[in-house]
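Model it.
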Amino acid sequence: MSEAILSGQEAPVTEEAPAAETAPETSPAPAASAEDWTSTLPEEERIAAQAAGLKSMADMAKSWRSGQKMIGRDKIPMPKTPEEYMDVYNRLGRPKEATEYGLGMPEGLPEGMPAEATQEFIDAAQGKFHELGFTKEQATNLHNWYWATNLKSFDDAKVQTETAWDQRVEGLKSEWGTDFNANVRLATQVVQKFAGDDAESLLASLDTGFDPLLVKMLAKMGKSFAGDGSLVNAEGKAVVAPSQARTEAEHIMASDPAYLDSYHPQHAAAKAKVTALFRSASQ
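Modeled.
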C-alpha cells in the first residue's frame, strides 16, 4: 500500500490521458477497369482508341509501335476502278510496253516439234501479260514453264510413238519370219510403181506410221504382180516373190539338164540363176 494511505492522507487524483484518436480506415482507390482506361484521354483520342478496339494502354503502345514501322514505306490503296488497277500494276513493276518483256522462241527446239507456238503467238501472249498486269519476272516464269511443259509432252509422245513402231515391226517380223525383208521390199516396189511422184512421201509416211495391215496388203499386191512379171525393181528386172523364187530354184535343181549336167554349156548360168533365186527368196 502507498504511503499516502498508510499516513491517512488522501492520494492525489491523477487524470488519465485521453486515448489517442484512431484515424479512420480508408479503402484503396479501385483500379481503373478495362472499360474506363481511356477516361483520362482527350475525347478525340478516347473515341479513336475505342473504335480501334484497343483494350489497354499496352495495346495502344503496340499499335503505336506498328505505326512507326510503317512510316516511310510505300502504300498502295486498294484499287476499285480499271484505271486504279492499271496504276497498281505499274507501281508493282509492270513494264511500260508489252515488248519490254523480251520473250522469244527458245533455241535448240528438237526436230519435228510442231510449230504451234510461233513468235506471233508469243507476241500475243506478251500483250495479254501486259493487260493482266504481269511483272517481267512473272511473265518470264510463265513463259519458261510453258516451254518446259511442251518439250516434256513432245518427248513423251516421241517415246510412245517409237515404242509403238517397234512393237508393230516386231509383230510383223514374227508373223513373216525370214520373208519379212522380201515382203517389205515387195510392198515398197508396189508403191514406187503406182504412186508416181508421190512415192517418196508415201513411203516416208509408211515408214513413220508403219501400219502392218497396209504393208501386208501392199506385199500381197506385190506377190500378185510379181507372178505375172509386171512388177520390176530399180534395175528394171522383173520382181519375183520369195515363195515363187524358192519354188523356181528348187524346180531348176530337180529337173533342168543345164543345172544337173556339170558339162552342159549352160551349167554355170543355171547355177547362177539358182543362186540368185535363193538370194531373192531369203531377202
